[in-house]
Structure formats: C-alpha cells, structure tokens
Amino acid sequence: MSLKKSTLLILIILLIDQISKIYIKTNFMLHESVEVFSWFKIYFIENDGMAWGTKISDFLTFMSERTAKKCLTLFRVVAIFGIGYWLYRSVKNRGSKILIIAIALIFAGALGNIIDSVFYGVLFGESMGEVAEFLPETGGYDTLLHGKVVDMLYFPFYKGYLPEWVPVYGGQFFTFFEPVFNIADMAISTGFLMLIVFNKQAFAKND
C-alpha cells in the first residue's frame, strides 16, 4: 500500500471524526442525548483525553487534574510523531497491506483526539447548560493543551439487573456496552485489533 493511499485513508477518517465532533459540539449541550435505536444513542460527553470516555484522574492520581491533562496531551503529541515514522518506514520497506492500514488507522485516531485535546479549549465555548459557540468573542472554555475530547457514540445493548447467581456482580445493575466513544477511538481500536488478529500476516517478512 502506497504512502499516498495511506494518507488518503488518514484524511478520510480524520475528516469524518472532526465533522462529527464539531457537529455534536455546536448542536448539543453536555450530556444531551438522542435515541436513534433502543440499542444506540447519540450521547454527548467530554473527557480529558483518555480513550473510550475514561477519566485521566483514574490513572494519574498523583498529579493535579490540569498537570496530568497537559502531560497526557504532550505525550500523545510526541507519540503521534513516532506512529507517523512507523507508518513511513513500513511503507518505504514495503510492509504488508494489513500492517500499513492498521498503523494508518491508529495514526488517524490518535491525531483526531489530539486535535481535540490541543485546540478545542480555545476554539469552543462552554457546553455545560448551553450549546457551545465556535470561536466565541469571550474566548474558549480553556487554554491551549487543555481541550477535552468529544465523545458521542453510545451502544447500551443491555440494561438491567444481573441474576443473583452471577459471581461477584450478581444482583447489581449492569449496562453493556457502557463506554461512550468517537470515530477516532474506533479507528485506534480497529487498528490494534488488526495487529492482534492478523499478527502473522501484518508482520510477515517480504522476500
């Protein structure tokens, strides 16, 4: 797979990801939802940059929230250059098509969420209790590197109390699938899944 084709794939995913996020950000208030099907909702939440709606404070408990956020954003900016170099070398060395597609998906997803983390704080107004304005006259809701990632895809396939016989969680209220995510998260997860499932084909050596 050529560099031109992999770049086109990245641009398509990035475009879909950012269009969906900007639409949600400028049309929904935080925590507003729309039911598409009983098992699928558009549900607007924001997070500090962890995948699948995870809170950064759940992992970097030894840092303040803002310091942890900035460190995570800077780490991801550095990481994206590493992923980009990995993609470039894989194309140049004629790596397998599966490998190049997988890396391109991971790169596109990571870049999509980085854009939110780096720029959304200065580009958009607050979403709590109101629909955010793009480039508000009073300034954005935060500073550079402190933007929040927009998530909106929610698939609550099952909600209810688990049977008492279920170990540990029996009798508790349970939702499957709980995380709220975005297109970028899907791209990253798909890329990693491809590398795991098609590991031998992805890393096959060319003769």
TrEMBL record:
It is a multi-pass membrane protein. Its EC number is 3.4.23.36. The active site is at 151, 185. Its main location: membrane. Pathway: Protein modification; lipoprotein biosynthesis (signal peptide cleavage). The chain crosses the membrane at residues 72-88, 100-123, 180-198. Keywords: Aspartyl protease, Cell membrane, Hydrolase, Lipoprotein, Membrane, Protease, Transmembrane, Transmembrane helix. Belongs to the peptidase A8 family. This is Lipoprotein signal peptidase. The gene is lspA.
